[in-house]
């Protein structure tokens, strides 16, 4: 799947401007969910944040496999990333075997948004 920017004039921003993340880990498997702050942002995220881009973001950790799941009713994507936690919390010698901090690798990915995109929308994100 190729990342598709929106049509028209756009600007590039880090993903965290239009979405937030949740993470979890089990053994050597990491889950990263990317959740749109506003309904308008979900298509931008869905079209641009691909399994290939997430694989590239984790290239230094040599992911075994990255699978993307779309959750349109939640305005979210979930990525299951294998083999990036150096064995997991109990097996790793690194300082952070937990997956919690790794969402920032995804949330730092650049995305294209319409030039006139309103970042501080007042509508609740849970509607």
Your description of this structure?
With 127 residues, the protein is of the alpha+beta class. The model has no long low-confidence stretch (mean pLDDT 81). The protein is built from 3 helices and 6 strands, in the order βββααββαβ. Strand 4 and strand 5 form a beta hairpin. 16% of the residues lie in helices and 31% in strands. The longest helix has 8 residues, at 41-48. The chain has a 4-stranded antiparallel β-sheet with strand order 2-3-5-4.
List the helices and strands and how they pair.
Elements: E1 10-14, E2 19-26, E3 29-36, H1 41-48, H2 51-57, E4 66-71, E5 76-82, H3 103-107, E6 110-114
Antiparallel strand pairs: 1-6, 2-3, 3-5, 4-5
What does this entry show, briefly?
The chain has 127 residues and is an alpha+beta fold. It has helices at 41-48, 51-57, 103-107; strands spanning 10-14, 19-26, 29-36, 66-71, 76-82, 110-114. Strand 4 (66-71) and strand 5 form a beta hairpin.
